[in-house]
Design brief:
307 residues, 2 domains, nine-stranded mixed β-sheet, five-stranded antiparallel β-sheet, 8% helix, globular, disordered C terminus, binds 2-acetamido-2-deoxy-beta-D-glucopyranose, ATP binding, signal, ANXUR1/2-like, transmembrane receptor protein tyrosine kinase activity
Amino acid sequence: METKTLHFLSLIIISLISSSTSYSPTDNYLLNCGSATNTSLYNRVFVSDASRAGSFFLSADRSISLADQNPSPNSPALYHTARVFTTPSSYKFNIKKNGTHLVRFHFSPFAARGFNLSTAKFSVLVNGNVMLNDFSTQVVVLKEYIIKANDKMLEILLRPVGESGFGFISAIEVFSAPKDFIVDYGAKLVSADGIEEYQNLSLHVLETIHRINVGGSKLTAFNDTLWRTWIPDDDFLVLKTAAKRVATTHTPNYQSGGASPEIAPDNVYMTAQQMNKDNATLGARFNITWIFQWVRVMFDTWFACIL
Ligand SMILES: *[C@@H]1O[C@H](CO)[C@@H](O)[C@H](O)[C@H]1NC(C)=O
Ligand SMILES: *[C@@H]1O[C@H](CO)[C@@H](O)[C@H](O)[C@H]1NC(C)=O
Ligand SMILES: *[C@@H]1O[C@H](CO)[C@@H](O)[C@H](O)[C@H]1NC(C)=O
Ligand SMILES: *[C@@H]1O[C@H](CO)[C@@H](O)[C@H](O)[C@H]1NC(C)=O
Ligand SMILES: *[C@@H]1O[C@H](CO)[C@@H](O)[C@H](O)[C@H]1NC(C)=O
Ligand SMILES: *[C@@H]1O[C@H](CO)[C@@H](O)[C@H](O)[C@H]1NC(C)=O
Ligand SMILES: *[C@@H]1O[C@H](CO)[C@@H](O)[C@H](O)[C@H]1NC(C)=O
């Protein structure tokens, strides 16, 4: 009985420690769009976008709140509602702390009340930068952007394409990035002309395309310090047998000024691929190659690949 109580207590202490060390952003807006209620996902509360709680404003005279009458049983409650826009409309967020912010858009299409969200077509702008142009989706999509906020206000504008067009959104996240999330010095630009330092990366709008846990397994928002999803690198390896997974059981010893648990969670640092020298059938000279497909489509919008 006594040992049980002790175990219980130590569990509580461990969870108190881990929650007190977890990252808490200065600006932290999580919106459940088109819903009158708050809902949580991975222990984060997404508040109704119709509420006037907090410091955000929705300017949409003719927007419609839509609820999925037939949600698939394993989809989170956050994805059971959406706000539909038939005219250009915006969300405005008060920014308390200048600097790099993460902006995420969740789109989960369904059909209700004469709107088939799979047929929606719209553009999304953040502070005037086009993030999504003539966007449309038939599957659940999460888009993530990294943007420097220098004004007191951050504006997200949804603009339907065409006369009878409409747009929709299921959830929005706007939160302050941790310190040194994007470094301005030290990033390398590799081009045909050689390698040079690429300065002021944080001044550009970045989109996350792939977030890869090299040599490791898939990590979900549940495992990550910034509620990100990391996928394994296997599908990007040109020659899988050239690489060999390695892992450590030791958690990283973070030094101040260097990498931090917010840049990537422990599990990402604890796995790697090493050159598979053991494979005698490969020549003495070989390389590990990953191929990623990158497309640059928008003015002043760069794509980041975080390895
Ligand atoms: C939703 O959460 C916000 C912020 O925590 C709170 O002010 C509001 O009362 C909540 N609304 C409902 C309907 O529970
Ligand atoms: C919604 O539109 C998509 C794409 O056009 C189509 O495949 C789907 O059947 C439509 N759903 C309904 C309920 O009409
Ligand atoms: C944020 O940056 C803007 C423009 O650089 C400046 O006018 C404003 O005072 C800054 N706000 C804070 C809180 O530092
Ligand atoms: C980077 O930004 C700083 C301050 O905004 C500026 O002085 C410098 O010229 C910029 N460097 C490049 C390479 O653009
Ligand atoms: C990540 O979280 C999932 C539950 O969502 C769990 O099954 C898995 O073991 C976790 N992975 C790691 C590496 O912590
Ligand atoms: C070595 O490489 C060959 C050719 O790519 C592959 O068929 C074989 O499975 C590899 N062996 C090991 C132990 O990885
Ligand atoms: C790296 O390995 C790939 C696959 O074996 C090969 O196609 C490519 O030519 C190699 N590149 C270099 C620079 O050695």
